[in-house]
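B., you asked whether I could sanity-check this one before it goes into the benchmark set. Here's the sequence:
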Amino acid sequence: MEMTVGQIAALVNGIVEGDSNVKINGYSKIEEGKEGCLTFMANTKYEHFIYETQASAVLVGKDFVAKQPIRTNLIRVDNAYATIAMLLNMVGSMQQNRRGVEDPVYVSDGVNLPEDIYLGAFTYISKGATLGKNVKIYPQCYIGDNVKIGDNVILYPGVKVYHDCCIGNNCILHSGVVIGGDGFGFAPENGEYKKIAQIGNVIIEDNVEIGANTTIDRATMGSTVVKKGVKLDNLIQIAHNVEVGEHTVIAAQAGIAGSAKIGSYNMIGGQCGFAGHINVGDHNSFGAQSGIPKSVGDNNILMGYPAVNQIDFARQVANVKNLSRTNAELSALKKQVKELQEIIESKINNI
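And here's what the prediction gave me:
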């Protein structure tokens, strides 16, 4: 949608420096700016780009002071990063403004479809499913028996939600997400593994976003729970009976083993692994590839395997880097000790 710089400024309560009549029809990063695009600068380490960008307008903070002449138009706002996020979200919602039921779609008898629903082709809605207002289900999705989906939910192509699972309001599930697959439950018996029925479900609370190909297993009994505001990246595995606390964010390829309890406002880096049946407190940060084998309290910054505080981790890394030198020094000391022993033994034998 095309807008002028002045119209955008009015929308975001900004102040224009330059030509408010310039037209904007796209968005770009500041270093890739071109005519007709709006970009932003929220971090001063990228300031040098503002003096050379070809973008037609740049969102900047009201406190930004230019050190060189600027050829583009500025829109001064309180928070450039938050403002560009708001604008991009607005554009994204306009692009996703789909309505209606495509063909072919299967909807079981008795399922009520709100007037503002969107169902993409080859979607299957099972018996007893409940769909909220303004739900968008893209092609090739599967909604199992008795699934409950709240308002303003988006399921992108290929999402699978197994029976009895619940998804709250304002959630986004990206392509390939599987909610409610069986937990990894097997009992050893006579040299074999017998499957344990997984009769629980998964509960996804409000305002959760789940990245592509992430899987969340149903509980053996009870519920696997992802609480409100959680953001999950791509390719994450959350096992049965896990609980992820409010507003925790988890980066790609992390794994949480069964019955682990993760608290609120944690930041978990990529490829982290959590052992089963542990408790993790609130407001912790875990560096990428950390391994967490035991319970953790609150307000920690942990790295490595097994995860330790960042100071100890830095020492470990330094020690590893010095291993070659340490080994060489140790070998030299061993040689000196051996030589001293030989001298002492020689003198003793000559007495």
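One thing to flag: The CA atoms of residues 43 and 81 lie 9 Å apart. Otherwise nothing jumped out at me.
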